[in-house]
Amino acid sequence: MKSLETTRLLLREFRETDLEDFYEYAKNPKVGPRAGWPPHKTVEETLGILNRFMEGNEVWALVDKKSNKLIGSLGLHEDRYRSVKDVRMLGFVLSEDYWGQGIMAEAAKAAIRYAFENLNITLLTIHHYTFNEQSKRVIEKCGFVYEGILRHAAQIYDNSVYDVACYSMTKEEWNNTL
Q: Is the dihedral of CA 36, 99, 39, 16 positive or negative?
């Protein structure tokens, strides 16, 4: 994926030099569980995921332009709930230090534009666990349409099972927001 730039952010490929910043937010017990993954226990665990991000082509590193610090990630993935080729699912995570500043909505809007203009998809989806109010607010700010709740839909790392709130946006709906 090509690099993207917003007012405050650079969305780019992950680099080995991101390891320290990545581990810093990934070990926070308030960050990963909201996305269904455990807080990282070691730098080696983070390195394994960093290597997968660098090998793949679906996750951007979110970098604060002012500090040049890695502060999160945002990806365009296959939607595990849909089997249609021209559909992607948006997923994101952000360092707690940057919550509540509109940063993730800014990044997500750039990724949405990229998805519809460059990947030629027809539908972009996004999901959140029903307890994750921060993600819900970002999703609503970005203009996604609420589809409903998949009950008892996701079992996470600690064997907890959660309902998942589902949203989507068609290319036509996105075009109407321009």
A: positive
Q: Which strands form 69-77's sheet, in the order they lie side by side?
A: 4-5, 9-12, 59-64, 69-77, 87-94, 123-129, 161-170, 145-155
- Angle value at C-alpha 16, between 11 and 17, nearest 5 degrees: 75
Structural contact between residues 3 and 104, judged by C-beta atoms closer than 8 angstroms: no
Residues 6+ apart with CB under 8 A from 37: 156, 157
| 34 CB-near residues (< 8 Å, 6+ apart) | 93, 129, 131, 132, 134, 135
Please tell me the pTM assigned to this model.
Answer: 0.93
Q: Summarize pLDDT for 65-122 with one digit per residue, the tens.
A: 999 999 999 999 999 889 888 999 999 999 999 999 999 999 999 999 999 999 989 9
Rounded Cα–Cα distance for residues 103 and 67 (Å): 14
> Residue 80 to residues 20, 83, 149, 151, 169: CA-CA distances in angstroms?
30, 7, 15, 15, 16
> Mind listing the pLDDT tens digit for each residue in 12-59?
999 999 999 999 999 999 999 888 899 999 999 999 999 999 998 899
Q: Domains in the chain, start-ordered, CATH in brackets? A: 4-176 (3.40.630.30)
